[in-house]
Structure formats: C-alpha cells, structure tokens
C-alpha cells in the first residue's frame, strides 16, 4: 500500500471518522498506492495522503477525487462529506444549532429578528391598520402574507406608541390570530368579543379563504363576516386585519361589506425588489454569524426573479442549503445539490417518501390526501387542517404516528397541538407525486370532504337515527367507499354512512309497503265494487 499511515481512532472526531472511512475504501479497492491514485484523482500524493490522515478536514473535491481513484461512486462520499461538515458546524455553534431559515413554515411573531426584506411593506400595513378599523391584506399564494401578518405586523403593534392622528391606542389590549376553519363561529365567537382593559383588541384573520374552502354553511359564513365587519363601527373596540389570497377576491366581492373594505382599505403584497431579496437571503445568515457566497446570492435572486412569486420555494431551498453548508458558509454548490429553487421541495419530499416501506408509503399517501381540499373550476386545490385523531382513526392505517413524525421532521407537514396540516400549499404544486395523487383521486376527494363534514355535523347533534342522504349522493359515496375498501374513511364516517344507508333502506321499504298497501286497497275496492254490482243484479232478478 505504499507509505505507512499512523494509527487512527475514528471515535476521536468526525474528521478522524471520515479519514478512517477513506482508508477502508482504499483497502477494499485492493490497496492502490497513492502514486498510482494520482493519475485518476488529479491531486498530488501529499494531498491524498492528508485526506486520510485525520488531522484536518479535507475539501469536498479532494474527497470526491479520492473516492473516484478507488473506484467508488463520488456521490455517496459527497453525502458523507456533508454529514461531517454539518457535524463540525454544529459543534462550533453548539449542539442543535437553530436554522436561520424557516423552510416552508411561516414566520411567527417571535421570528422578527429573522424576518428580512419586508420592512417597507410592514410599515405601510401598520399605517393602514391605524387609519381603518377593518383592513384586507391581499396577495397570491406564496407571497408571504402569513409571515407579514405575524412577524411583520404583530411585533410592530406590540411596540406601538399612542397616535393622536388616528386615536389608536398605544398597545392593543389583546392580539388574537385565527384561521376560519370549518366552523368559524363555533370556534371563534368569543375571540370576537373585545378584551377588557385599556386599548383595542386586534383580530388577525389569516388564511381568510378557508371561509370558502372549509366552511360548508353559507349562513355561518355570512354571520362570521358580519361579526368581523361590525368592527367598522366607530364605537367598536375591535380592529380586524384579513389576510386574503387574491384568487379568492371574487368570492369576497360577493359580500358588499367585504367589497368596500377591499376597495378602500386594502394593501397588496407586491414582489420583492432585488435589494429586498438580497436581505431575505443574507439577513438571517448574518444574524447567525454565517456567510452566504456571493455567487449563491446572485443565483438565488436570478432564480426567484425568473420564477415570479416563489418565497416558499426560496425559503425551503435556503433551509436545505443551510443543512448542506460547508462550515459557516452557504455555497452555490450546496444550493445545487439541494435541488435548487424549483427542485428542493420535491427532492426533500421524495427523500422522505423513498425511506418508507410499501405499507408506510401508502399510509403517507392517505394521510397527505386527507390534508387536501380539492379545487373546483374557479378555485385551486388548497390545504385543510385535520386532527391527529381523524388521521389515526383511518381504517387500517398502520404506523400513522411514525409517518406523521417523519413528514414533520422534513418540514412537509406541521403538527399544531391536535391539528395537522401541510406546512405550505406550495407543496401541492412543487411535489409532482402529490399532484398526481390529487388528480388521480379528485372526484373521490370531493365526496370524501363532504362525507367528513356531514359526519362531524351528525356527531355534533347527537347522531340522530333518521339521517338522510340523497340517493344520488349515497350511490356515489358507496361506490367510492367500495373502491377504497373502506380504508379511507374513519369509524365516524362509516357510522354516518351506515346510518344514511339504513334510513334509505327503511324509506324504500316504507315506500314499497305504501305502494303495496295502495295496490291492495285499490284491488279490494274494485273487488268490493264488483261484488256489490253482482249482488244488485241478483237482487233485481229476485224481484
């Protein structure tokens, strides 16, 4: 094997472990001399021997060249190199070093120190909320509305000083953040009651479009909207900020009060300028004493500018690049290895999915489809929140807890108390596999969503026995449940469907019995009439 190498303890450090792995690779390759490896590696004997000495961390190109010279796949050794790099960085920064990037997750009020690039828009939104009692923040999916509301507006409200111009209180008496969900009034009626004490109560309604995608009752929608718009009364102690996706603006305009708010008290989230994008990339890294290569910053800005509104993609790509950083530096090479702007989400999702066996992969598919509300001709597919109990109650779903944890660790879904939801709707369009599942099951998903909502309403009124489902809908539901072999419905939904079918059978039996009784009555009447006529003829013959 040529030159003698000093003994090495791989437990000594991550660098020593990598060096030991390189030495083992060389032995398994037949023990080529470093002199013979030079020709294939393109590096000197000294450089190659230092890589396996365990005294200093070799560069990635050297490790790739070493592996190539030994006949190994360089990609595998690239993974090992990045793992060691991350471990070294974690040791430098302390164990469990926090990421400066949020990935697909929104920024929260506590993330203000990492929320860069929206200073001007945040100040403009604050001024608008001081001038109007009900305000709408509009923007397409992925424009960062939720983060602007939470990390851009709320901290500013919490620091607010008394304004004589509009009479706004120094600090809100309370700030309440909510998303409508399926039953906004049942869940948030008390949240629309002002808090006692000095100041006004601010209600921030994020994901306002859930009022149309998740709330099934038009009457409840109207009542909830009326309760929010009541804050426009000068005597009200409420102020309301609505975060609305622009593709649901037309639905909002069907309500005159909302239309007035959107015409006179709205702010649209615009695309970031080049300077704002640069701050979004560099600011969080700087706050964590990290470095972003200039080439990476330039590439990110170019990619985002070319693709339009892509902030979730940018944030996720930055998170994945940070995971693959070289020491304290985020590199262009790490970004490309993460999949780039357009591929990072799909690469992360596929990476998790590929580690599941066939059973857990099917469990993941069924769980993720439960978190989707399929769109219609004029609305896109959106996410929905489910409860852990709902997901774990799916018939025959093995290992649901383990699948949920794996998807959560990858940042694809979020567990929020008892609630479970996709971390961002960008996953729907950015992960081709999920998009294919949705298209393949679109019709079934529409019926499934109806079944879930109807079953929950039935449960809320005490599971009354005479539940009625229209025969046409019942036939469709039965067909889809049969196709899924009842594995995609919960016990509650199965009970609701069984109750509906029982009512349908009773109704059919009653109708058949009624028809039979009617036919018998007609026959009896005709027979009686015929006998009466015959009797009259007999009597006339006697007399």
Description of the molecule:
With 543 residues, this protein is of the alpha/beta class. Among the domains are: 14-93, Orthogonal Bundle (434 Repressor (Amino-terminal Domain)); 118-268, Rossmann fold (3-Layer(aba) Sandwich), CATH 3.40.50; 274-346, Orthogonal Bundle (Helicase, Ruva Protein, domain 3), CATH 1.10.8; 355-429, Arc Repressor Mutant, subunit A (Orthogonal Bundle), CATH 1.10.10. 57% of the residues lie in helices and 8% in strands. It contains 25 helices and 12 strands. The protein has helices at residues 14-28, 34-41, 45-51, 60-69, 74-93, 119-131, 145-158, 184-188, 210-213, 218-229, 249-252, 256-264, 274-287, 294-307, 311-323, 332-337, 340-354, 358-370, 388-392, 400-409, 426-430, 432-440, 442-460, 471-483, 491-542; strands at 134-139, 174-178, 201-205, 238-245, 266-268, 291-292, 329-330, 372-373, 382-383, 386-387, 413-416, 419-422. Strands 2-3-4-1-5 form a 5-stranded parallel beta sheet. The radius of gyration is 33 Å and the shape is flat. It starts with 13 loop residues before the first helix and ends with a helix. The relative contact order is 0.07.
């Amino acid at each position: 094997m040529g030159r003698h190498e000093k003994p090495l303890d791989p437990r000594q450090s991550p660098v020593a472990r990598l060096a030991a792995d390189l030495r083992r690779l060389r032995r398994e390759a037949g023990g080529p001399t470093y002199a013979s490896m030079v020709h294939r590696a393109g590096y000197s004997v000294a450089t190659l021997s230092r890589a396996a000495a365990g005294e200093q961390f070799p560069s990635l190109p050297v490790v790739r060249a070493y592996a190539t010279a030994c006949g190994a796949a360089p990609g595998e050794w690239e993974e090992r190199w990045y793992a060691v790099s991350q471990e070294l960085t974690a040791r430098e920064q302390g164990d469990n070093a926090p990421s400066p990037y949020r990935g697909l997750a929104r920024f929260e009020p506590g993330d203000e120190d990492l929320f860069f690039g929206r200073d001007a828009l945040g100040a403009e939104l604050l001024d608008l909320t001081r001038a109007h009692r009900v305000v709408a923040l509009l923007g397409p999916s992925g424009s960062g509305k939720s983060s602007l509301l939470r990390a851009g507006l709320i901290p500013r409200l919490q620091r607010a000083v008394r304004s004589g111009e509009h009479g706004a209180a120094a600090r809100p008496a309370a700030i309440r953040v909510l998303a409508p969900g399926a039953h906004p009034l049942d869940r948030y009626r008390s949240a629309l009651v002002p808090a006692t004490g000095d100041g006004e109560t601010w209600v921030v309604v994020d994901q306002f479009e859930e009022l149309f995608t998740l709330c099934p009752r038009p009457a409840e929608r109207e009542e909830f909207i009326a309760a929010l718009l009541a804050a426009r009364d000068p005597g009200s102690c409420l102020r309301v900020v609505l975060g609305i996706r622009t593709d649901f603006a037309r639905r909002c305009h069907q309500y005159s009060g909302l239309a007035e708010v959107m015409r006179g008290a709205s702010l649209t989230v615009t695309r970031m300028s080049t300077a704002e994008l640069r701050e979004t990339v560099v600011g969080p890294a700087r706050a964590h004493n990290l470095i972003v290569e200039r080439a990476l910053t330039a590439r990110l800005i170019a990619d985002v500018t070319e693709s339009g509104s892509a902030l979730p993609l940018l944030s996720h790509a930055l998170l994945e690049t940070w995971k693959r950083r070289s020491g304290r530096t985020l590199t262009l090479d790490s970004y490309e290895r993460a999949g780039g702007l357009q591929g990072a989400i799909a690469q992360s999702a596929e990476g998790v999915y590929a580690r599941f066996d066939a059973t857990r992969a099917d469990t993941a598919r069924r769980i993720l489809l439960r978190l989707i509300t399929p769109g219609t001709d004029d609305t896109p597919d959106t996410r929905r929140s489910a409860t852990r109990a709902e997901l774990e109650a799916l018939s025959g779903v093995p290992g649901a807890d383990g699948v949920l944890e794996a998807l959560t660790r990858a940042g694809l879904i979020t567990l929020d108390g008892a609630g479970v939801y996709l971390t961002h709707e960008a996953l729907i369009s950015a992960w081709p596999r999920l998009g294919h599942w949705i298209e393949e099951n679109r019709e079934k998903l529409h019926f499934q969503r109806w079944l879930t909502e109807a079953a929950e309403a039935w449960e809320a009124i005490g599971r009354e026995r005479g539940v009625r489902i229209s025969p046409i809908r019942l036939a469709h539901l039965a067909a889809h449940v049969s196709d899924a072999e009842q594995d995609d419905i919960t016990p509650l939904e199965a009970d609701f469907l069984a109750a509906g079918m029982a009512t349908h059978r009773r109704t059919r039996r009653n109708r058949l019995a009624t028809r039979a009784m009617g036919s018998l009555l007609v026959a009896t009447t005709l027979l009686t009439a015929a006998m009466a006529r015959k009797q009259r003829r007999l009597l006339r013959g006697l007399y």
